[in-house]
Design a protein that fits this description.
Layout: E1 22-28, E2 33-37, H1 42-49, E3 67-70, E4 73-75, E5 80-82, H2 92-100, E6 107-109, E7 119-122, E8 149-155, H3 166-178, E9 184-185, H4 187-199, E10 203-209, E11 213-219, E12 226-232, E13 236-243, E14 249-256, H5 266-275, H6 279-301, E15 309-316, H7 318-324, E16 345-348, H8 349-352, E17 361-364, H9 374-383, E18 392-396, E19 401-406, E20 411-416, E21 437-443, E22 450-454, H10 466-469, E23 473-474, H11 476-488, E24 507-509, E25 515-520, E26 531-534, H12 535-559, E27 566-570, H13 571-574, H14 579-584, E28 596-598, H15 602-612, H16 614-626, E29 628-629, H17 637-645, H18 656-663
Parallel strand pairs: 1-7, 9-11, 12-15, 15-17, 18-27, 20-29, 21-23, 27-28
Antiparallel strand pairs: 1-2, 3-6, 3-7, 4-5, 8-10, 10-11, 12-13, 13-14, 16-17, 18-19, 19-20, 21-22, 24-25, 25-26
Helix pairs in contact: 5-6, 9-15, 9-16, 12-17, 15-16
């Protein structure tokens, strides 16, 4: 998993002007325009101007998603003369990639083409960044509310000659009435004290953190302190605004993680932070702004302001943790993958740049290891495997899958680099879970006809006129279901190869000669190009599911168990998985399907638990140390197991519960 810091795919000719002039760039159809410096890539220019261009690899010239067309001619409406000669020529690397991906003639990659003059740039539909549909709703859970933030209302008599200071009178009242000692005023609270006493005629409400610090002083009586729990996912941010007194969930907000612009996976983020001047600070600022925006939005929905947010709990994987804290993540990009910091942290919101109450506190749950982060600790808080007698397997399906196995006796964890296939990357027509993405697939086992659902529509494709289907690509859940359905129908063999005896007209050869199956014909797509599942796409799914299964199998062998009692699928993608089809292709171990549960965003629920109960923060710190982190080996028996897991469903393991579904008998 070490990152290559030497590859810089900049084989375009050198720029002619060392003085770096400024040129006008206009993007269509987004309508964004402005001045950018000579020499920046069109992808960098788009980021600067706020024009959305898809870039899964973050500008490393590998995904070929950032396709643009340079317009040639004079355009009075935009008041610009554009020419294809006003960008650097395509280098060997870009040309080879364009040929491999069969890009139309005249299409350039925005991450490779550099500005050397005024430009009008068209962004095809397939390359337009879309707002992802984020599904990270909170789960209904029974929570014990005992927050670290408390409100105290006191009334001071008018000061008399010879009285002590207002500060001392407040502290004395808190000690007398509530038994609070050794309290100190935060500077902002101390500044607000005189005006609050005057406005409230001696009646004030104090916001106290951990019975130690007075964060805020408000005139009169108040009874609704607000806290925000945030799950910083690699792809999405999810925030939960809570009433710290009652525990009530007041608002849920979510968005794309703005860091996606700089790379879809954690390794490309590390690369950007390490190799780009100012890159780490840029990634830090973008996620902090994203969290602030969610807090503002959530507070508005609750009839409050961001100033009312006085406590915050953050969770995320190790790289998201480091970037949110503006810590150099370089050590996570190479062996032995040691984080720079991993203990639980208590900070001021203002120190991170969060736009909440300046004195608000921020708690970051601890990391477990280099690639098992605070989000996994939050999952433990939510699902409580360490308090169960049953053997539980918890799988967070993502680019870097995190796996937990165990019970109150022993709890193991590991990370499994599944790759970005289930996020839509490295898939020919892959995309994120945005409107128009195929998310459900069914294949008739007799006719081999395909029908599907796209995000944004409740109807199956076969019930709509072709022009109303509007497919743009295929997202993770759709990719998994397509492979499972085609395997069940006999179109895909256990090796992952297409069956040469298949006579379906949907089995075609793609432009580069690969066998591929037509999931959506051209007339059902927005791009007027058929959406295919190619042989290489199936291979990417095999590698991802093989890594996940082998990681779980590795933990099961270490724990000495051959089966699990209960299985939990979590995460934004895990909660969308069809458990039967995931087991059909061998992504997860065999188990009674009734014991396989998708729980939604358990990491966000764990963050909410820690927000509302201070004892759970202590428990999180303890369980992070108690949980045993195992590093999956890369050779020997593990490699043999991984190769066996590439078969569908597996070369040697039987999936009795799936077999039972097909023959109608209970598993033996």
């Amino acid at each position: 998993m070490a990152i290559n810091t030497t590859h810089k795919p900049q084989d375009s000719p050198e720029l002619p002007n060392p003085d770096r002039r400024s040129y006008k760039v206009v993007f269509q159809p987004s309508g964004r325009s402005g001045q950018v410096e000579e020499g920046v890539t069109l992808l960098e220019a788009a980021r600067h101007l706020g024009a959305g261009i898809e870039s899964i690899c973050g500008g490393q010239e590998t995904c070929a998603k950032c396709q643009v067309i340079i317009e040639d001619g004079t355009f009075p409406k935009e008041n610009i003369k554009s020419s294809t000669s006003n960008v650097t020529r395509a280098g060997d690397h870009e040309c080879a990639l364009a040929q491999r991906r069969n890009l139309p003639e005249g299409v350039r990659l925005a991450c490779a083409a550099r500005v050397r003059g005024n430009l009008l740039v068209s962004v095809p539909e397939i390359a337009q960044a879309q707002k992802q549909v984020v599904r990270k709703a909170a789960t209904e859970r029974i929570l014990t509310v005992d927050p670290i933030i408390r409100l105290y209302f006191i009334k001071l008599a008018p000061p008399q000659l010879g009285d002590r200071s207002d500060e001392e009178r407040v502290l004395a009242s808190l000690k007398e009435r509530f038994g609070l000692e050794d309290l100190v005023f935060e500077y902002d609270a101390l500044l607000a004290l005189p005006a609050a006493l005057k406005t409230g005629q001696g009646k004030i409400t104090l916001t106290v953190w951990n019975s130690a610090a007075i964060l805020r002083v408000q005139p009169n009586f108040h009874d609704r302190p607000l806290g925000l729990a945030v799950d910083i996912g690699t792809t999405t941010l999810a925030a939960y605004l809570c009433d710290l007194r009652t525990g009530a969930l007041l608002a849920t907000t979510s968005s794309m993680n703005p860091q996606v612009t700089y790379g879809d996976d954690i390794m490309s983020r590390i690369s950007y932070a390490v190799e780009t001047p100012g890159g780490r600070e840029q990634l830090h600022r973008s996620v902090i702004h994203g969290i602030t925006d969610l807090g503002i939005q959530a507070a508005k929905e609750a009839g409050a302001t961001a100033e009312d947010i006085v406590d915050c709990v953050l969770v995320g994987n190790s790289v998201m943790h480091h970037l949110a804290l503006n810590i150099d993540p370089a050590s996570l990009g190479h062996l032995p993958f040691i984080p720079a910091a991993g203990s639980p942290l208590d900070l001021r919101a203002a120190d991170l740049g969060l736009g909440f109450n300046p004195a608000a506190r921020v708690h970051f749950l601890p990391l477990e290891a280099g690639y098992v982060g605070a989000d996994n600790v939050a999952v433990i808080l939510a699902e409580e495997p360490h308090l169960q007698d049953e053997i539980m397997l918890i799988v967070d399906v993502g680019t870097n899958g995190e796996i937990l196995l165990g019970s109150r006796q022993r709890l193991l964890c590991t990370s499994s680099p599944t790759g970005p296939a289930f996020e839509g990357a490295q898939i020919t027509h892959g995309m994120r879970a945005a409107p128009g993405a195929i998310e459900r697939v069914r294949v008739d086992p007799h006719t081999l006809a395909v029908r599907f659902k796209v995000i944004g529509s409740d109807d199956w494709s076969d019930s709509l006129p072709p022009e109303k289907v509007g497919a743009r690509g295929i997202c993770g859940s759709g990719i998994l279901e397509a492979v499972s359905e085609l395997f069940t129908a006999g179109v895909i063999m256990p090796t992952g190869r297409y069956n040469p005896d298949c006579t379906s007209p949907n089995l075609v050869r793609s432009a580069n000669g690969q066998l591929a199956y037509v999931l959506a014909p051209a007339e059902q797509t927005i791009t007027s190009q058929a959406i295919l599942l190619t042989q290489s796409d199936i291979r990417a799914v095999q590698l991802a599911k093989g890594a996940l299964f082998t990681g779980a199998q590795f933990l099961m062998k270490e724990l000495g168990v051959e089966k699990v009692d209960r299985m939990v699928l979590t995460g934004a993608f895990g909660s969308l998985l069809d458990r039967q089809r995931a087991m059909t292709i061998g992504m997860i171990p065999d188990c009674d399907l009734d014991k396989v549960l998708a729980v939604g965003n358990a990491a966000g629920d764990g963050a909410r638990i820690a927000l509302l109960n201070k004892a759970k923060r202590i428990e999180a710190a303890q369980v992070a140390v108690w949980t045993e982190h195992l590093i999956t080996p890369l050779e020997g028996e593990f490699q043999q197991r991984f190769v066996a897991a590439l078969s569908i469903p597996h070369a040697t393991e039987r999936f009795l519960h799936i077999e039972a579904l097909h023959n109608g008998s209970p598993p033996s």
